[in-house]
Amino acid sequence: MLFESRQRLESDRKQYNRRRFLSFALLAAGGYAGYRWLRDRPKPIAQREVRYLTPQSEFYSVSIYPGYRPRLDIDEWRLNFCAPQGREFSLSYAQLLQMDSRRVHKTFICIENPVGGRAIGNAEWTVTPLAPLLEEILPRDRQGLRVVFRALDGFYSSVPLATALDERAFIAYEMNGCPLPRDHGFPARALLPGKYGMKQAKWLQSIEVTSDWVRGYWENQGWSYDCDIRMTSRIDSCLPAPDGRYRVSGIALCGARAVGQVEVSIDGGSSWQEAPLTSPARPDAWSTWDFLFKPVRGGELLLISRVQDASGKRQEEGYTGSFPSGSTGLHRVLVQL
Question: Cβ-count burial of 123 within 10 angstroms (0-12 exposed, 13-18 middle, 19+ buried)?
Fold first, then answer.
């Protein structure tokens, strides 16, 4: 009898544990489904002002130590370059300003930015090309080399040599015609083509060519290794026009490729119409767009936008979270007419 009682007790315990496990699993699945519904559902339109250049005061900023500002004597600051076989040199700030310079437009976007999020901005950067500086220190054998960017706050990132030698890889020292703000990397920061902001070091201290496998700060936290920007289009405003129509405006970004075409749906995705671009289409920079329509009825309207790049490739429409490779999905907003 005692043995049978123990068997029943053990069987009841196992059944209880199974039920408890299933309950927790169902609760977790339900919670995740609820989170995804909240994340991906259409939201009321933000009614943002659409501008091609983002003012410094509105440009998002992320760092490994929030609020970090380097304390440095600009006359003593040096940007150090080094590579295998002992090749090295350094640049002062004054020397950097004397290098070959140009102005480029580039959009930064945080890899954690959700669909339609605010952690994205476009600016005009005064830069010097990175490749000629790297050529000064590169060894003859370049197989398997990487370039590591190290910052004054301890941040570091790593890219293949080919990325750093790209004609659109730069060192920037001005933003929208002014010296880099301290939030955005003064005295110098890296600009790399087609990559999320997590790859692009601010407050540069050194640039190192190495044969070692260096992953990078954020990659060691589980984020994407390649870090290629996912195409995205955002609806920023829908306002009445003087002629009785409504004007829908927004921005679109295709990463390393220029924006090719933006389309807007005013009927929840049943039909699509092209939205003309209102700014130049450039690789690595967003384009603004504008669309006019006359509503057939009042009430609530579901607006959706999508983009394709200059090669004809369209953005991914399925929704994902931002971790680990950046968010995908179409931006959908609700407008009350």
Answer: buried
